[in-house]
């Protein structure tokens, strides 16, 4: 895979703000992306805290939610992942079953950035 068009990083920090339904990506402490996301809808839950990516899956199909496609999945806590969604019109609002959804092109950019720096150099922060 080709390396993202960015300077060679030391760290990648992904900050998800549940209240704002936004994700900011910092490359060596410099913001490089600010994207809308969808997190858990009413009655569901998105984990809060600080995480390291566990597994990267180019195309995952949910075994829990009717084989829903989850492109560019970055699993960070059990079945919870950051991934692309077909429901881009819902980004910016709580709409998921708990995962953090992104536009597919943004999920691809993030996935490749995580690959480039290595999972151990990535911190995912999910906050209220």
From TrEMBL:
What's a Pfam family this protein contains?
YkuD
Q: Which GO terms describe its molecular function?
A: peptidoglycan L,D-transpeptidase activity; transferase activity
> Which residues are in the L,D-TPase catalytic domain?
12-126
Reading the lineage from the top rank, the first entry is Bacteria
Keyword vocabulary terms for this entry: Cell shape, Cell wall biogenesis/degradation, Peptidoglycan synthesis, Transferase
Q: Which CDD domains match?
A: YkuD_like (cd16913)
> Per the UniProt entry, what are the Gene Ontology biological process annotations, in alphabetical order?
cell wall organization; peptidoglycan-protein cross-linking; regulation of cell shape
GO CC terms, sorted: extracellular region
Pathway, per UniProt?
Cell wall biogenesis; peptidoglycan biosynthesis
**Active site, renumbered:** 83 (proton donor/acceptor), 99 (nucleophile)
What the entry lists under PANTHER family is as follows: L,D-TRANSPEPTIDASE, L,D-TRANSPEPTIDASE YCIB-RELATED
The family line of this record is: Belongs to the YkuD family.
Q: What is this protein called?
A: Murein L,D-transpeptidase
Question: What species was this sequence derived from?
Answer: Aliigemmobacter aestuarii
Show the taxonomic lineage. Answer: Bacteria, Pseudomonadati, Pseudomonadota, Alphaproteobacteria, Rhodobacterales
């Amino acid at each position: 895979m080709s390396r993202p068009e960015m300077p060679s990083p030391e760290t990648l920090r992904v900050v998800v703000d549940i209240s704002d339904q936004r994700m900011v990506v910092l490359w060596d402490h410099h913001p490089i992306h600010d994207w809308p996301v969808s997190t858990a809808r009413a009655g569901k839950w998105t984990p809060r805290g600080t995480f390291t990516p566990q597994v990267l899956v180019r195309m995952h199909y949910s075994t829990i939610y009717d084989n829903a496609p989850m492109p560019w999945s970055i699993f960070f806590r059990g079945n919870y992942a950051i991934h692309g969604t077909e429901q881009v019109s819902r980004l910016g609002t709580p709409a998921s079953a708990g995962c953090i959804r992104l536009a597919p092109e943004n999920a691809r950019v993030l996935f490749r950035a995580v690959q480039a720096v290595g999972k151990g150099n990535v911190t995912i922060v999910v906050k209220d």
